């Protein structure tokens, strides 16, 4: 299993729009084949910071999601709200 971590900083005027978008797609992402869980963390010192955590059975499942129609709709909308470039990485999850 792998854990995908994506740290994103949003424009202050876009934070609530991203939170609403995430609420809309959260269950759809979790329903993707190989995804077992998705969480979002909110920054304490920086209210514009969001970090998503998603657990995937296999790297191929994550890649299939990244090539999916859902990702193709959500990611461009999300990218337009960024204050700075996101930082993403994957790690083994025991």
Architecture overview:
This protein has a four-stranded antiparallel beta sheet. The chain starts with a strand and ends with a strand. 37% of the residues lie in helices and 32% in strands. The longest helix has 16 residues, at 15-30. It contains three helices and four strands. The chain has a single domain, classed as 2-Layer Sandwich (Alpha-Beta Plaits), CATH 3.30.70. With 94 residues, it is α+β, with helices and mostly antiparallel strands. The model has no long low-confidence stretch (mean pLDDT 97). The protein has helices at 15-30, 59-66, 69-79; strands spanning 2-9, 35-42, 49-56, 87-92. The protein is globular and about 35 Å long.
In short:
The chain has 94 residues and is α+β, with helices and mostly antiparallel strands.
Write the layout of secondary structure elements.
Blueprint: E1 2-9, H1 15-30, E2 35-42, E3 49-56, H2 59-66, H3 69-79, E4 87-92
Antiparallel strand pairs: 1-3, 1-4, 2-3
Q: Average pLDDT, to the nearest integer?
A: 97
Low-confidence stretches: none
CATH class: Alpha Beta
Spatial order of the strands in the main sheet? Answer: 2-3-1-4
What structural class do you assign from the helix and strand content? Answer: alpha+beta
What shape does the CA trace take?
globular
The total of beta strands comes to 4
**What is the CATH fold-level name?**
Alpha-Beta Plaits
Work out the oligomeric state of the chains in this entry. Answer: single chain
Task: Give me the strand/helix succession.
Answer: EHEEHHE
Largest sheet: 4 strands, antiparallel
């Amino acid at each position: 299993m792998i854990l995908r971590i994506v740290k994103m900083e949003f424009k202050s005027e876009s934070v609530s729009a991203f939170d609403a978008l995430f609420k809309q797609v959260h269950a759809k992402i979790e329903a993707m084949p190989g995804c077992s869980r998705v969480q979002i963390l909110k920054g304490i010192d920086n209210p514009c910071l969001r970090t998503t955590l998603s657990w995937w059975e296999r790297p191929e499942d994550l890649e299939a999601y990244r090539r999916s129609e859902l990702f193709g709709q959500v990611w461009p909308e999300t990218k337009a709200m960024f204050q700075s470039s996101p930082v993403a990485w994957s790690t083994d999850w025991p």
